[in-house]
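Quick log. Single chain, no ligands specified.
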Amino acid sequence: MGSRSFVSRVILFCDENVGVFLKMDLYTRIFSQSCFDVNKKVLEKFESLTDDDFKEKTHLFNGRYENIYLEIKKIPGLEIIVNAALENSAKILNIKKEKLVSGFWLNSMAAGDVTTAHTHDDDDELLSCVYYIRVPENSGNLIITADNEKTTIKPEEGMFVFFSPDTLHEVSKNKSTESRLSIAFNFGLVRT
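-> predicted structure:
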């Protein structure tokens, strides 16, 4: 099995760096079997890391750092997920992969945790994404808000969800007894 794509309603946005209006869905879900196949290995390595393995932790809310940064080489298999995210973002944006740069961070949500409402439009991002590595039942849904309307997306292991960086989004409370792990991405143009 390769990948499956699902899309929702369409939005338009203009990006000065691209120079055109891009027709983009509110969100696009893509399942990747090759990424799903490395989830277990990525999760096992992540759980063995110590604080010294992380480059940086940011966005301290409710006693938890929402963003955990590390070097890609720290977790074998992570490069497969990062490369798939970059390839899919290039397809969605209709831009050559070589013209895009990505940044990523991990988000580990323990039982009772939430991720607060936010956007990713701080810089020159063209597209944002989340990829799900471990999703216990009832561990929280992705909630996207556009035009004062909330859309709830139930995450699945092996699934990417791509959306515009200026889309307000959050994650509901992890009501499970296990932690949940995802990777967030931003994509922009390579600066020359």
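The chain has one domain: 3-189.
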